[in-house]
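Hey,
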Amino acid sequence: MADWQHERQALLAYYDRLRGRALALEEELGAALNSLDLVAALVRARRALEVIVIEVCEHDLGRARGTEPLVGLLPRLKEAVPASALAAMVYLNQLGNLGAHPKPVTELEVGQAFVALAAVLHWYVVEYRQGFGDPPAGTPTGTAPGAPPAPLAPNPYLGLDTFEEKDAGRFFGREALLERELLPAFLTLAAGPARLLALVGPSGSGKSSVARAGLLPLITSRLPCRLLTLTPTHRPLDALAQALARHALPEDPAPAGKAAEFRALLGADALGLTRIAALLWAHAQTPLVLLLDQAEEVFSLCQDPAEQGLFLDNLLAAVTDPAPRLALLLTLRSDFLGETQRFPAFNALVTRQGHLVPALDEPGLRLAIAEPARLAGRPLDQAVVDLLLAQSLGREGALPLLQYALSEVWRGLAAGRPPEETLRACNGVGGALAGRAQQVYDGLTPDAQRTARRCLLRLVQLGEGGPDTRRRVAIDDLLVEGESRPALLAILRRFAAPDARFLAFGRDAQGRDQVEITHDALIAHWGDLRDWLAADRDDLRLLARLDAAARHWEQQGAAAGLLWRRPDLDLLRRYAGREGAALSPLQGRFYRAARRLAGRERLLRGGALASLLLLTLASLGAAWWARQAEALAERQKLIALDAITQRTYETVDKLAKVAGTSQVLGELIRNNVALLDRLLALDPADANTQHHQAANLQRAADAWMQLGDTGRAKETMQRLLDVTRGRAAADPGNSVWQRGLSISHEKLGDLALALGDTAAAREAFRQALAIRERLAAADPGNSEWQRDLSVSHEKLGNLALALGDTAAAREAFRQALAIRERLAAADPGNSEWQRDLSISHDKLGDLALALGDTAAAREAYRQALAIRERLAAADPGNSQWQRDLSVSHEKLGDLALALGDTAAAREAYRQSLAIRERLAAADPGNSEWQRDLSISHNKLGDLALALGDTAAAREAHQQAHAITERLAAADPGNSQWQRDLSASHSRLGNLALALGDTAAAREHYRQALAIGERLAAADPGNSQWQRDLSVSHNKLGDLALTLGDTAAAREAYRQALAIRERLAVADPGNGEWQRDLFASYLRISRVRLAADETAEALEATDKGLAIARRLAGADPSNPRRAAETAAALGLRGQVHDAQGHLDLATDDYREAAKLNPDDADAQGALGWSLIRLGRFAEARAPTEQAHRLAPTDVNWTINLGHTYLLAGDPVGAQPYYDASIAQIPDAAALTQGPVADFELFIAKGWQVKACRAALARMREGFARRASAKPAGGAAP
C-alpha cells in the first residue's frame, strides 16, 4: 500500500463519516485509500468524485448523466456548488483523466488528487449533506436512435503512387502475366547461372507495381529469401551501400559506419557486392532478392560513367557468382535500352533475360477498375466501368492516368458526387491528372506560382536525345537566396497533399529531406509543365552546369582556379540580370566570387607593366624595414589575440552569471567578433587567427543561447559553420578543422532542437557524428575524438527521446556510456571523464524512469551519485562538482516520489537544497546558483502540496517566485529569466486552483500569458516560446470551463490550437508538437460537447483521433499512445451518442474497450450501448468486465442484470437487481435509473412481462429498504 500519510488522515476522517451512509462513495473512497499502486489510487479518487457529481446533477438539476463525461457535467454545477469546491472538482477530474495524460502517474499527482478530493468531501459532508442524509445518486439513461449508413471506406486507388508489397491485396489485372510468365521465369533464372530478371516497358506501363505488389509477394511465398529494394539515384553505389547497410543492421535507421564499410567494398572492384552477399549469407543462410527499381536512373541521373560501369559490374558479378546468394529483379524503361549498349555484358543479359510488361488488356483493365471498389464495399456501376475502360484502352501510358482518375472518382463519391459527374468535371481519364495539377497551380498566389514553376523544372532531368524524366532533389538545393525553407515547403506540400500527390517527400542516404515528382506521367501529360520545359530548356542546362561547378568549387575549398571565366561567366551574367532569375545560396556565392576575380584580373592586367618597374626599385630598400615591421606586427597581433580571448572567455563567463548584464554582454560579444574579423582581414591565411576566430564565434553562439537570443545565436552558428566548413574543405587532412566543423554542426543541432525543429536537429547531429566517426576510426587511441563521439551519440539520444523513440534513445545513450566507461577506466584520475560518465548514467536513469523501470533508474542514479560524491569529496571547493551533486540528490528525490516514498523524497530534496543554499550564499551575484535554488524550493513546494501541507507548499513556491522575480527584474532582456517567471506564475496558478481560489489562479495565469506573449512577439520563430504561449491559453481555458464560461474557454482553446497547428505543420516529425495538437483537439471537442455543439465536437475529435492513431502506429509498444487513442475514441463515442448515432458510438466504444481493456468506463459504455441496440448477448461480456473492475458501481451492476433479463434469463438477472437495491440512493435515483431503463425496454417490446415483473420486485425491495430507515434519515 502506498504511504500518503498526511493526505490520508484528512480523507480517513470523511471516510468514517461516510461509512454505512453512502455505500458507493464509501466503497470508492476506501478503495482509493487502500490502493496498492498509483494508477488505482488516482482512478478510485476520480470515481469518488464521479459519485458526488452524478448525485448533485440528478438531485439538484434533475438531469440524468447518460454517457456524458464529467468534463461536460462540471460546468453545469456552478449554481449548485461553491466556486472553491467546483475548482477542486475540476482539478481532480483533470488529474484522474488518465486517457488524456501523456505522462505516467506520479506520487505527486496522487497526493494532489487526494488534497482536491478532501476539499470536495468537506463541502459535500459538511455543507451539502449537513450532517449526512441519504445521497440520491442515479444511473445512466438513454434512447436508441437510428444509425446512419456506414461511411465510405478509405480510397482503394493509389493515384500516382506505386503499388507496394503491402498493396498486393488490391493489385488487380496482372494475374495471368505474373503466374504464367514472370514467376516461373524468375524461379527458373534464380536456379540458373545468371540470376537476373528484367521487367522492361514504356513509362506508365506499371513495371514498378508489377514488381513490388505482384512479383515480390509471389516470390516470397514460393522461395525462402530476404528482400531488398532500392532505386539507384544519382549516386548508385552510395544508394546500394546504404540499402545493404540498413538490411544488415535493421535496428539502426542510419547505419553510417556500416554503409561506409560497404561503400568501400563496392568501390574497390567489381566483386564488392559478391563479398557483401557472402557476408549476409553467412548471417542468415538465405539468398537475397534485390529489386532494382527504375534502373534507368543509372543512366539518367548518374553523370559519372566510371560509377555507372562499376555499379553494373558489381551487379553482374554477384548474379553470376557460382554461389547463388543473390538474385536480381530490375525494372527498366524501354526507351533506355539504348543506353545499356554502352555496357555490352549488361545489355546482353538484359536483352536475353528481359520480359516485356505490356499494356493491360481489356479483361485486366476491367479488373483493375472494378475490383478495388468492390472490395471496399462500394462497387462501381457497370456503365462507369465501361466508360473508364473505353477512355483507357489503347492510350499510351494509360495506367497512371487511369489510377489518378479512379482516385478522383472515389473522392467524388465521398463528397456525394456520382462518378459520371466527377469524370465530366475533370475531362475523363486523359484530363484528370493535368486538370488537377493545373487546379493546384492556379490556386497559388503569383509569387508562389513562380516558385512552384522553378521547383518543378528543377525536379525534371532533361533528356538529351531521350525523354525527360523525374529526379530527386534535396529541399535545401531548391532554395534560392532570400527564400525561407518553411515558405518553400508550404508551396511544395500543396502539390503533395492527399488530394493531389504529384510530389513525394523522402530522405537521401545522409538523412537530408528530398522531394521528387511522383510519376513521369505528370511530365508527359501536364501541358503547362511541358511548355515551361520547352521555354526554359537552355536556362535549365546552364543552371545544371552552374550547380555542378559550384559544388566542385565548394568541395575544393573555394579554389579561385575553379571559378567561371568568360564565356561562361558572360552567360551567367546575362541570366542573373534577367527579371525573375534566381540563384541558390551556393550558386550566388560562386557567381559573386567569379565576378570579384574577374574584376581583380582586369586591374592586374592594366597596371602590370607600371607596377613591375616600381616594385623592382622599391623592393631593395624596403626588404629590411619589412622584416622589422613584420616581427613587430606579429608581437602586437599575439597580444591582441590574447586580450580578445580573455574578454571572450573569462569576462563573458563572469558577466553571464550576473543578473542585469545582458546588454553589456551582448555588446562585448559583438565587439570581440568584430575585432577578430579586422585582425583576420589583415592576414586571411594566418592559421592562428583563424583558430581564434572559430573559437570566438563558438563562444559567442553559446552566450547568445544563454541570453535566450535565438536569432543572433543562429546567425552566429551559421557563420561558424561557414567558416569551419570552408577551412575543413581547404585542408581535409587537418583534424582540428574537421573537429571544428563537427562542433559547428552540433551547435546548430542544439539550437534546432531547442527551437523544436527536429528534422534540422537530426541532420546537424548526424553530420557531426559522421565526422567524429571518421576521426575516431582514423585514430582510435585519441581520447578527445572518442569523447566527441560519445557526445554525438548522446545528442542523438536526446533527439530520439524528444521524438518519442525510446528504443533509439536507449541505444544511443548506451553507446555514449560504453565509450565513457572505456575512457574513465583508462584514466581514473581524469575528473572530466568521470563527470561525463556520471552524465551518461543520469541519461539512462531518466529514460528508465520515463518508461516506468524504477529499479533500473535507481541503479543508474546511484552510480551517478557515487561518482559525484567522490569528485566533490576530492575537491570540496569546486562549485561545479557541488552543483552536480545537488542534481543527483534531486533526481533521487524524483525517483523516491515516483515510488511513493515521500520521506525519502523530502530528504533528497533537502540535501539538494542545502548544497544550493551554500553555493548561492558563497556567490550571491551568481544568477545560475539562484536559479538552481528556486528549482529546489519548487520541488519541496510540489511535495508539500502532495502531502496536503498547503501552508508549506505556498511558502516554498513563494520563495521560488521571489528569486525568479528578482532575476527577471534585474535583467528584463534575458528571455530565460522571463520564461522562468512565466512558469512560476503558472505554478502558483495551479496551487491557487487546487485551493479553490479561482481569482488568484486567473491573475497568475494572465501574468504568465502576458510574459509569454512578449517573448513570442520578440522572437516569433522560437517554437518553445510559442508552445509556452499555447499552454497559458489552455490554462485560462481550463479555468473558464471550471467556472462554466464555455465561450471564454472556447476562445482560449482556439488560440492555443492555432499556435499548435502552426508548430505541427512546421515540423510534422516532432512527436511533442503532435501530442500537444492532439490534446488541443480533445479540449476543443469537450468544450463544444459541453455547449451541445456536437458537429463541431465531432470534427475536433476526429482530428485528435487521427493524430493519436499516427502516434500509436509509430510507437506501438508504448501503452500511453494506446491510452490516448482510446480516450479519443471514447470521446468520439460520446459525441456520436449525443447526435443519436448509436451504431457509430458503439463502434467507437468497442475499439476504445479493446485498446484499454482494464478501463471499467470504456467496458461499461460499450455494454450499455449494445443493450440499447438490442444486442443483449453481446453486451454481457463488456458489462461483466466493467462490473469486475468496478463492483461497487451501481450502473454496471444493474446493466449486468439487464443483459440476463433481456436475453430471456430472469433468474440469472435477479441477483444483480437485488444487489443494486442497496446501492440505489433514493426514490428519485430509482425513477431516473432502473425505472427509466425498464420503461425503455417495455416501450421497445423487449421481454415486456419479465421487465414488468423485475421492475415490480425492485420497487418492492426498495420500499422495504426505505421503510427500514432509522429515524434521522441515515441509510441502513
